[in-house]
Amino acid sequence: MYITNSPFADFMIVVAVTNPELGLKGISIFIVDADTPGLTVNAPLKKLGMGASEMAEIVFEDCRIPVENRLGPEEAGLIRALKVLTLGRIASAAFGVGLGRAAMQESRSYCSQRVQFGGPLTANQFVRFTIADMATRLEASWQSCLHSARLADAGQPHDREASMAKLFATETCTWVCERALHLGGAQAYMKESPVQRFYRDCKVLEIGEGTSEIQRETIFKQLGV
Ligand SMILES: Cc1cc2nc3c(=O)[nH]c(=O)nc-3n(C[C@H](O)[C@H](O)[C@H](O)COP(=O)(O)OP(=O)(O)OC[C@H]3O[C@@H](n4cnc5c(N)ncnc54)[C@H](O)[C@@H]3O)c2cc1C
């Protein structure tokens, strides 16, 4: 369910239970051609945001996959899938920083140019402080993202740092996009405005690759307390 880009995919990486008796250890990974008999990609689902990608449900019915299509050893899938997921969290953090920066840039530009009550909106301390807070939180997000990426590149443990970066950067992104919509007034609320799109796009970053609650669980478990 909810598989990004499945309507365009020629092949898919499928994480499947191959030995139910082993529980989480009974999982393997397969590369599966999209035209395999028994595999159906349903019609694209309609989303709130992220209009540049499509997603759909994939249905497997009596779909037989040859053993040569298995990636890696049998029943070693969970650890491999989790490794990919952890790197995906660092990517989500970077996505949040990029989206947040774009939203902040729109706020800076609009609030510098828009004249109300005899001066630009940036003449108001509230506006300046909100944009300064956006910049500060985004910078902290970026440094956290870089830190986790450097650990991953160096082959050092990075599960906790990846979750921290993902949690902080994506929640920051949602906060920045909401504030950008607020500071942009009615024009930001219009469909022509990129800010309303950022506002619709940002939320999924807190949901995909493990929700914020899952990140908090991971961080707590790794605090060693
Ligand atoms: C746009 C989009 C694209 C996606 N693309 C893909 C994709 O390509 N591949 C793929 O595999 N998946 C994809 N997903 C699915 C995504 O990974 C899941 O939506 C996500 O992991 C959350 O799972 P869920 O939707 O089942 O939420 P649920 O598990 O139903 O959670 C609902 C709420 O309950 C909370 N919750 C759940 N368990 C706990 C707990 N133990 N403690 C506290 N709170 C909890 C969650 O944090 C959340 O707030 C996509 C989703 C979206 C929206």
Give the key terms.
51% helix; 9 strands; two-stranded antiparallel sheet; 225 residues; binds flavin-adenine dinucleotide; 3-stranded antiparallel beta sheet
Largest β sheet strand count, sense and barrel closure: 3 strands, antiparallel
Principal-axis shape equals flat
| Average pLDDT taken over every residue | 96
What is the tally of helical segments?
A: 6
Tell me the distance between the termini: 36 Å
Number of distinct beta strands: 9
The secondary structure category is alpha+beta
What is bound: which ligands?
flavin-adenine dinucleotide
Helix and strand run: EEEEEEEHEEHHHHH
Strand content: 5-15%
Q: How big is the Rg?
A: 21 Å
Identify the strand order in the major beta sheet.
2-3-7
Q: Percent of residues in helical segments?
A: 40-55%
Spans of at least 5 consecutive residues whose pLDDT stays below 50 are none
Characterise this structure.
This protein has 225 residues and is α+β, with helices and mostly antiparallel strands. 51% of the residues lie in helices and 13% in strands. Strands 2-3-7 form a three-stranded antiparallel beta sheet, with helices on one face. A hairpin with a 2-residue loop joins β8 and β9. The model has no long low-confidence stretch (mean pLDDT 96). The structure holds flavin-adenine dinucleotide. The site of flavin-adenine dinucleotide has 12 residues, from β1.
